[in-house]
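Task: complex structure prediction.
Instruction: return structure tokens for all chains below.
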Amino acid sequence: MRTLSDVYIIGSGETKYGELWEKSLRELAVEAGLKAVEDAGIYSKDIGILYGSSSLAGSINGQNDIGSLIADFSGLASSNIPAIRVEASSASGAAAVREAYLAVRSGEYDVAMVGGVEKMTDIYGSETLDMVGTILDREWEWFMGATPAAMAAMTARKYMKDFKVEKESLAMLAVNDHENASKNPNAHFRNKLTLEGAMGATMIADPLNMMDCSPMSDGASAIVLASEKYVKAHKLDGIKILGSGISQDYLALHSRDSLYRLNSTVIAGRNALSKAGIKQSEVSFLEIHDSYSIYGLIELEDLGFAEKGKASQLVGDDIKLNGALPVNPSGGLKAKGNPMGATGVGQFVEAYLQFKGKAGERQIKNPQYGLLHNMAGTGSTSLVHIVGGA
Amino acid sequence: MGELSSIWRESTHRYRLVGHKCGNCNTVYFPPRDICIKCHRESIGKIKECNMSGKGEIVTFTVVHDVPPAFARQRPYIMALIRLEEGPMLTAQIVDTDPGDVEIGKKVSAVFRRIREDGKSGLIQYGYKFVMES
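Output:
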């Protein structure tokens, strides 16, 4: 009888995030994948299964079967391994990592590869927005003129009114993201942002302006997962995935009881922490899905780091790199960027670098546990993972 | 039929605000659902059509400036979440008003309008929008 295996991340690779006009979907995926394989020190023959994640490749690039695409152009076609795409809109990345985690944890595979990729700048911006709108309820939200930013803005207006929260509290998250991204060579935006700059940007959907919204980025991120048996046999050291939680909620915001409680995040977070056997107070840093600034604020509450309506008290010095609870050391979705299918995998890349002491200028001192949160749409699916040094 | 069939299929709901009602527990749904979220399998075969009055209240709203191609001519426009008298909440535009007059809690009522158009030669799609009650 098999017993469950501990699951390790033994390597990571990432492209720069940004407007990468010179690189194609497949080039991005392969670049990140090969970097991860090289970093892990494994050979392609060691890979038992491959998970690709992309949210919009079928819509923007007209390319499906991303699993085969990545396997093929990584030179793996002749090894005929299973290679499949996982899709959960903007949470595709973490959803793919979770499938790989389960594959290794079950004992079925010793080495699993995850590659997330998105190539968003191959069509015009307004057309890309049309594709990004697939993360909403297409029939009853998008059809009526709602955009992802509009949905976030409606949550923001209600939240700010009910809890008397000023717009500055939302902007502080963007300022923090940009500060951290200025120290991340792979980030989409490396410029620092002042509070005045964040408050005065072009309006997207009132009260949210451009600095409240994550950009449309190209990019790819990859990690290699391995079983305890494999890690021991090859004398590797990695970091552990200690807990994985996933949950879903109503697809459309109008079907939910609350506009600012993300039930899927509450449950995924609770399950991940419980599986890891740790409490919020033991978490050293967070990577949260702040596709829109307001979500960052309410996620801090729904993940249990602040009471409902009180996250604004946290978003000052506490969330900085040297603060009590660093948030988005990578630069987050706002400034590291948001290549949708890659974003969730990119959070694992950041965690791996942090635990291996390879995060350069944005290195957090002696991290114990990291919490990674990736979310689909307005909260229809959430994934939370707890990772830690092995 | 292509794209046309997906528009035609929903026209009853979008043109006349026809929702669904669970014959088991009487919960009203708009947009329509084929299964009751409270009764689950007990609602099978008991879901009936149900007309909405079109009266409701603004729960929250936004003014959308960055708009999809099908809405280019309407930019900027007001999107809102509206709680209908019958209970359900829906997502719709508020029209014929200045954004400065829109407030959370104000009463609105449904009107039949052009929703979106797919370019110069594409389909023009119709449905409900809301106006402020005077």
